Predict the structure.
Amino acid sequence: MSCRRAYSVLVVDDSALIRALLRDVVGEMEGFEVAGTAGDGREAVAAVKALMPDIVTLDIEMPGCDGLSALAEIMRDAPRPVIMLSGAASEGGVDLALRALELGAVDFVAKREGAGGGAMEARLRAALLAAAGANPGAIAPAALRTARVLTAEPSLGVQAPARAAVAVAASTGGPRALAEAMASLSADLDAAIVIVQHMPAAFTAGLARRLAMLGPLHVSEASHGEMLIAGRAYVAPGGRHIRVAGTPVGVRFVLDSGPPVWGVRPAADPLFISVSQVFGEASVGVVLTGMGRDGALGLSAIREAGGGAVVQDQATATVYGMPREALELAGADRVVAPSGVGPAIADLLGARRAAR
């Protein structure tokens, strides 16, 4: 039996109703307790210094000192796992949530999920469990890393059907890892990249927009029946599984709303397995930070088909669950930080072309 004390949680929201709801959720979870509450960002920063909570839940949009400003101060002065709460479904609200993840927040919960059925509460419980398992060493420098922002979207270039593919899996901590990984890619990459990030449907198009500004490749949300184009990256839509299928004129995406896999939809394993079947040795699987084991079976399938495998290293993974499971089951050709993903992909695809 573990003798560890309960994880203490600071609850921050300008709504007294939401604060009460969050207090109830935390108070009912075994192994967690409420350290205190705050009504705005300035109170939150002071409470973190005074109470030293293990985890903070932080509303993004608050009057005065907002959540992003408070997050930046917390990550600079007293870094710890922070879960952002967002109530805005607008493009601007989505971008704020994604920016918070890039700055070091480990996860976010959409408040509107609480409209019925306890979805927000369930999502918060999962986020708290992930935060409890977060790697402090990966969180601490997060706010100090600033991804480059391009002034113009990358050119589409020559749109040739993809003859090689890179499948990427990411969950908790994924948006920040993806930002670094995408910035490390070469502009002349001769493969299509397909990303599964565990994220609600309203946020995946925004993730594609953010990643398009942070790296050299054109990035978009994938659509059913769309052809995979070399040198482009695609983000799986939230709420739908994504696979690839060969056709006489090229490889196309197949989206479906089948049952969740490993409790999530989209899941990476269906994508990875289909990529192994269609592209074989001209495929690379990449498993980044996240809780659980999604991607491990798929990475094994890619390796068995002759493809390459890249796994994020423990030191930089916000949550090491997915990379650890992938490494234990499938092994890897490269174990790297997110900034090393681009060179690793180029090396593995180049070596396989040279061998053919």
User: Anything to note?
Assistant: The two ends are 54 Å apart (CA to CA). The domain at 7-144 is CATH 3.40.50.2300 (Rossmann fold). The longest helix spans residues 341-355. Residues 41 and 189 are 42 Å apart (CA to CA).
